[in-house]
Fold each of these.
Amino acid sequence: MSKYWSKVTKSLLPYVPGEQPKDKKYIKLNTNESPYPPSPRVLEAIKNEANEDLRLYPNPECNELRTVIAKYYNLQEEEVFVGNGSDELLAFSFQTFFDPGRTILFPDITYSFYPVYCQLFGIDYNTVTLDDDFNVPIDKFFMENGGVVISNPNAPTAKYMPLKDIKAIVDFNKNSVVIVDEAYIDFGGESAIKLIKDYPNLLVIQTLSKSRSLAGLRIALALGNKELIKGLNMVKNSFNSYTVDRLALTGAIEAFRDEEYFHETRQKIIFTRERTTESLKKIGFTVTDSKANFVFISHPRIKADIIFRRLREKGILVRYFEKHRIDNFLRVSIGTDNEMEAFIGALNEILSENGL
Amino acid sequence: MSKYWSKVTKSLLPYVPGEQPKDKKYIKLNTNESPYPPSPRVLEAIKNEANEDLRLYPNPECNELRTVIAKYYNLQEEEVFVGNGSDELLAFSFQTFFDPGRTILFPDITYSFYPVYCQLFGIDYNTVTLDDDFNVPIDKFFMENGGVVISNPNAPTAKYMPLKDIKAIVDFNKNSVVIVDEAYIDFGGESAIKLIKDYPNLLVIQTLSKSRSLAGLRIALALGNKELIKGLNMVKNSFNSYTVDRLALTGAIEAFRDEEYFHETRQKIIFTRERTTESLKKIGFTVTDSKANFVFISHPRIKADIIFRRLREKGILVRYFEKHRIDNFLRVSIGTDNEMEAFIGALNEILSENGL
């Protein structure tokens, strides 16, 4: 710890992203990336944009992309904000809508970046304990608070909360902002976007990193009432006027235009998820009901960290969280059918190594 | 103002970037972009990187780019941090090294984003008044403070402070971090990078947006003692693990590799700046001594805002700041020789319109 660090820096326990190893080629099921490449139209558009105009700043308002997204979701451009991945949008949102001294609420088991933002911005939080099946007890959000954050489907549990429950939470909390983090919504859930017209306190965050195969491009969107979006712009323009580069803007526009490719690849992932779930259950795993591009699994006889390490040795990366209540679970991203067959094969080997 | 905004959001007066108009084609001398395209090798590298790997997250540590930069500047990789433009690096740096309650210092006339960061992070600041010729009175920095920020060459004055003065400030302030913002250093100044080995309290920030013609790609670097860089990583990883996308990483690497193109284009800009300065003086303008890719000019008889508006009507954009002490100046980016001839021609017309 350096004497030159600010007090807040000294207090931080940063988020740790899933590993991106370079020592050998792995089957990478640890960071919820899409196993399919981006749309060929996206790659083509980016290549065309790699031209002399890169000497110029991007459009700081991202107008063209925001227009395309607004049209796609039947919103107005003023209800759309775009940024450098949903982590950046979450960071801006915590700072824009939550105040030190007003306690915010989120589930005890959820995206582990939320408490990190709270540390960074000095925001107090309480966690709502999920039930034993990782369901969200929605009545626990029916109390005075300074804001609510819900990941739906939730990570890493993969569980989806029906839209009527989201609506009940947003409806009760009219005096605070409810952020619904929909990073995984395109894999079978129903988005809360349709509630935006009725609820000025609802902010929906989505990303192009998962269902649109563009984790490497850093693009996400926040959708909500224009007053919320205006607030986000205040904070963003006090931090960095240009967080989305020219190539990312162009690629994102084309990703929204190529609807066919989007639907085709996400359907493939959903199909593989269902197949994988069946196979996992057959060999004795507990699998939560997933509406995401990953599954959350546990075995009654072999500890998750043992399976995690053994899979790694066999060249398969999954995610293990050494955390209370979920330290016997693994989060496994859905790969291609071939990758998931290799994964099931490796699990079968591990089971027999353990005499099962 | 919305009831959903946090207290800090309600207090913000965001930075306003130079306009990026779309109504017609302008000669754009208002945002200090390079008039020259990026190196052809950079564009080629980006095109090659626009491939299926965009489905994968970028390397959050940016190791390859950091190795290239470290080698270029004869530093260690642990002394290099990269981010999404120097605005992001400045924001991270203010948060990492400055504390509420410990007053930081920067010049009264400088990059107008600095006070905005202070608002955003609740940091107190005092400004040091530049002398009438916009020189920095360095002894004013020889006092107790919570940090120092110096833009060198300074913006928008274009004036350069010799390295011995920077060294004196860094040397006196061993208990606080001195940030030297070198966005424009490649146009004739001497970088403070060589002081890093001796001063653990020095952070140097540079960007690829100006001298490397990559404003559209969003890449900048912070260089300093490894403890400072470690602090920056703490904050960044509590905000957004991946702020630099795959294409930007690749483009930036190639920009550092193509040294020849870099030297050729920046020399051209320096040459055009000197020619432009001479022409401006000939027609009666006051021009500060510039070591940047822009000039800061004033006319004794015609008000700057009048020239600004008339140039705009003639299709030439420059930057006018309606601010105390500099409200009779214009900041003019250096374009190509042809663009600067058109600019001088337009000024001549404006002079004769005003009977001069």
Amino acid sequence: MNQDYIIPNEWSIIEEGFHKDRVKSSESLFSIGNGAMGQRANFEEDYSGPSFQGSYIAGVYYPDKTRVGWWKNGYPNYFAKVLNAPNWIGLSVSLNGEVLDLNSCKKVVDFKRELNMKEGWLSRSFIAFLNNGLEVKVESKRFLSLTHDEIGAIQYQITPLNQTAQLELSSYIDAGITNEDTNWEDKFWETLSVEHFENQAFIVSKTNKTEFHTCTYNSTQFQVNGQKTNLPASVNKEAHKISLNYSYTIAQNSTLSIIKFGGYVSDRAHHRNDLKHIAKQNIEIANTLQFTGLLEKQVQAWSKIWEMADITISGDVKAQQGIRFNIFQLNQTYLGKDASLNIGPKGFTGEKYGGSTYWDTEAYCIPFYMATKNDEVAKNLLYYRYKHLEKAIENAQKLGFKNGAALYPMVTMNGEECHNEWEITFEEIHRNGAIAFAIYNYTRYTNDYSYLAQAGIEVLIGIARFWEQRVNFSTEKNKFVMLGVTGPNEYENNINNNWYTNYLAKWCLEYTLEQLDKIELEYPNNYKNVVAKTHLLENELKQWKTVAENMYFPFSEEKGVYLQQDGFLDKELVTVDQLPTSERPINQKWSWDKILRSPYIKQADVLQGFYFFEDHFTTEELEKHYNFYEPFTVHESSLSPCVHSILAAKLDKMEQAYTFYLRTSRLDLDDYNHEVHEGLHITSMAGTWMSIVEGFGGMRVKNNQLHFDPKIPKEWEAYSFKVNFRNAIVKVEVNHYEPKISIEGNQNIDVVVNGKKQNSFTELVSASKK
Amino acid sequence: MNQDYIIPNEWSIIEEGFHKDRVKSSESLFSIGNGAMGQRANFEEDYSGPSFQGSYIAGVYYPDKTRVGWWKNGYPNYFAKVLNAPNWIGLSVSLNGEVLDLNSCKKVVDFKRELNMKEGWLSRSFIAFLNNGLEVKVESKRFLSLTHDEIGAIQYQITPLNQTAQLELSSYIDAGITNEDTNWEDKFWETLSVEHFENQAFIVSKTNKTEFHTCTYNSTQFQVNGQKTNLPASVNKEAHKISLNYSYTIAQNSTLSIIKFGGYVSDRAHHRNDLKHIAKQNIEIANTLQFTGLLEKQVQAWSKIWEMADITISGDVKAQQGIRFNIFQLNQTYLGKDASLNIGPKGFTGEKYGGSTYWDTEAYCIPFYMATKNDEVAKNLLYYRYKHLEKAIENAQKLGFKNGAALYPMVTMNGEECHNEWEITFEEIHRNGAIAFAIYNYTRYTNDYSYLAQAGIEVLIGIARFWEQRVNFSTEKNKFVMLGVTGPNEYENNINNNWYTNYLAKWCLEYTLEQLDKIELEYPNNYKNVVAKTHLLENELKQWKTVAENMYFPFSEEKGVYLQQDGFLDKELVTVDQLPTSERPINQKWSWDKILRSPYIKQADVLQGFYFFEDHFTTEELEKHYNFYEPFTVHESSLSPCVHSILAAKLDKMEQAYTFYLRTSRLDLDDYNHEVHEGLHITSMAGTWMSIVEGFGGMRVKNNQLHFDPKIPKEWEAYSFKVNFRNAIVKVEVNHYEPKISIEGNQNIDVVVNGKKQNSFTELVSASKK
């Protein structure tokens, strides 16, 4: 554990005391978002110390020119950057002639931040001792509305404690912002208009190249000791900034509240010409509801989310705080309302990694959203890829594939690849398999075949075609081999016959063939359409079968395990526990060649295959592979501990499962990787959820039945979660004595607990009594 | 062949007719240099069309900030850039109010360029029809003096043909130059002073970061119809430029000659405070010798070079022109006078690839310089690496090696690595072996053991330590393996057990052990010193022996060949002749992953080993490997055809040998790779020389004897070359009837022709009569 300043609390993230060196980390941890926009927990008032300013609008990106060491054919021309958007929260506060700035004032006491996850708001309070002798108390509360997702609200309260204070306030919008992450220091935004109307300010700007038009707006109101007060504004317009300036004398112990509403209106949702008009409407809505009304709706909206998504853990506050933080951040990032959005690895909390969509979505996020929202949300995530199919086909063409073969991008914003390291972009192709697997997973979980029959089958055909073209026949091995790939373990590059990738490819081919058979039989019209649209030939199907049946899998007879890749056993097989801690993490201590020739595994690779295809192997096989590979695994990816936690739980290695769980659930809160200041690891948070539900809870869908095999770490008293399964809400409560399972809604589903099929709700309650 | 505008000529490179689209290519092809400085054949007068301006000072470089896609541990922080230096040749010519500019004038006729390789000068002449009606003839001649290597000279003659011309001339130095190749558009130079004295101009500037101080100077004189004429100068100084401006009315058919001397004086050779003073001295020397005197010395100096280095070919003008072009450019680039210099891949003809030193020097250039200059030159090249040993040890340390293991950089200017693609920088480690091989090669050729005993042995120890640490023991194979390397065939990355690298490593270990034994016995003091200095332990030697004896080499029993790497036979083994030409060159048509998983070979890899270690294998083995690998070779490196030409000649495949010879010798003249505008391929030019001397001539040093096994392509009538071997000048003349070999100087050497040892000079002459 690398930091521990977050105060354990079941429902809130709390920081007490002001420490300048924590500012950037806390800006990440206390981030807020509502799926449509989000922002780091930057201070409203000026802060002259180190800070990472960030406010983001979902789906608004910039195609930054790439930067490469040496250009390789096929590299994409741009890398889509998450875009810092104009700042609407800013308040420059001057009191008796001194700018309020926690970095330069004399002293800060009683500093406290709280991110209230139950209700969805961020608060901050402190007393600042200014250099001019004034003592002032500030309390702010801020949230981005879930119910009105273009509206954010701030209540900022100033109380001078020891004398009257002459306030000079500038409430501004600043569109002259920059990105921390740019390749060439490009300017990303162009300001189109700077306007105001009474206490309302508007800046319309557009992103360069992508031409997303956005109106950033805010309005500013005042209360004195709870009474609405009108203050006259003077306006200051600059090229990229508008400030509404106010003066007011605050009597000692009087409280001036500044109520600020603001946010973004973009042409992703509205006509370009209407943006300012819609922004005004938003201000009207906010004025009608007022801060308290909006907040009330916020609390209700979050309550509805928690009703379904909450996981309780008793007896372990840190574990409870961890899982709620993960669930909260996932919901802040993506709510599944907009099928053109996806789940970026840093959500709205930072810029690193750019792009919005990785294979994380299919491998980690879909199970979470599928179980905690209605099916539509997961389906939207599947349609997202369907809509990108044409671009995936173009992407494959750039790499020399033909005839409709599709390679989905490693990183994308609009379907085009935007990453460029050859070993990832061109070779980490297992991502294609995860996209097919998600279709299977969705269909298995929801029993909804409509996506597959209407759209998914096209995706599967494109992917199958890719695999068939990507392998080649080795006369030496008399098998099909797949050369030059990078597996999920990115600490190996350009390897041959990565078992996981080969296995996924074989499975994709077989699954696609099966689904084609099924669709031909059960949805003959769809079949006819898709064959016509994709120009599918009988010969192709034969070839897919041939490849699937003759795929090569590296296997060691001696060790009795599938090998991660050809030649894995040639490595110097020293396990991780024999590495001095001074050499860890290896990705910071070792040069890349040393990492590559070592046996160390960044994240589950062979074991990712065992996780996806659990049913294909016996528990003994799983155990053998887990025991062989886990000791070489350094877990230097945020996506690693969760899968290992799930597998360890399945193998009754509860201590390991618990350790991995803590690591995944508090990865950011405790800053294991020394990088939380760059933003949070949003997508791996879904893995944390899985490590409880699939790991400890043992939830699986098999033969159209929902199975549970609940276990509980000895450190906990009890835990509970709910999943939405085919319109039933299944609640699982586990303690050391009596696991309880109850169902609401559709009772027409099969639930199997500890291997025993339950026959009624009543029986379920105490089904797995030990 | 991709261009053919160069007129075949035995001694000159000639271009006739002005074509704007050839300007940049010709700027490369007509480059001049004298080992200390060099420049592209840019026009003296203004040219507003596309041009690539370049003038370079040997050893003066800039450590440009690197550019990477994704930073990897161990990457160097900079990439040394070849540095465009201030322009001293510039002449702005205005005639009757119109600027002379071949891009904008009405018509250009009788345009001719000649690079006279015999005498070492560049000339250009043309008649320009200006838009104002003036017809003017211009003749310029330019050279960089070999005998006074800080002095360049230009004679620029203007003759108005149809009317009197009012000339406004500005003879300038421009230090406000930029590089074509910069990563971040940095400014590389800072101007320190801009001065003049009478008709002399001086700009002192220094390079940023590296702080190379340089005085760029020139002086301008005039003759009218051959009579010296003084013209008054007016001076115009700008921040980075100085112009001396002259006016003169040239009568119709009168000729004004502008004589300009200029060049660079740098603190690499002089004290920083003396630069301007030395520049003035250079002008005095030039004034004393005058243009004709300097030119006379130039002709003599080149005559002396050709006396030793010339290769004659009769019956094939293009082949003759090709080989002389190669020999000429090599001598323009490096003359072996300065042990801190080396041979950059583009010499003084362009900026691409940066750095100055690649393994090309050891593998290709040393044999050329060894045979055509005295031993001192090759020895200087060896000492260059000796001086960088400490930095090679640091470089290895950065990658996790210890105890004095040395990894020489892939690209360097001062011993530090400055390339950063992980697959090259960290993994193309065979370069280390080439550096050891050059020590062996030098010692074998010269019989001079002094370098090895006094210095080279330390280099060998550092390299041996590297190999011992770089391998690991595979319990699976019960052998030492080398994982994660890139061989000379850079179309394979991060491969295991590259046969060439493993073989070189084994050889380095054994050779180092042998030399240590020899030095212990014959140079006991040196032995004591080196053991003390390197802390060499007996155990290390044992371990080197163990590794060498147990190195793994991939071999196919079925094919009877060593495999380029593990798994090579898993590839889809389609030979190059079956590739459609539309797919070639694959490095421009295919994405990197497709190249990597293909069997196609960029340049000799296994065959490079067979070339280096010819004696270790039978001719039958060579033939088997040549026949297996050559058909997969795309020769997309300039270094590929020469090695194949040599091996083909050895195998009596004379047609192939000849084809490869033509391709290597006219690579730039005929622009095979469509890139001559970027500069010439200097280092591969040494390979061209080898393909005649070692290929057709069959020259080898074996058992302290000089062997020849001369062959001649059917296209040629005869060819001849000379080599300097242990103070004897051996001249080889070969025709279809009667190969002749003669010796001058030390006759105390053994010469073996066609396997028969020759006993006297007389016998040698007709020794190998067929």
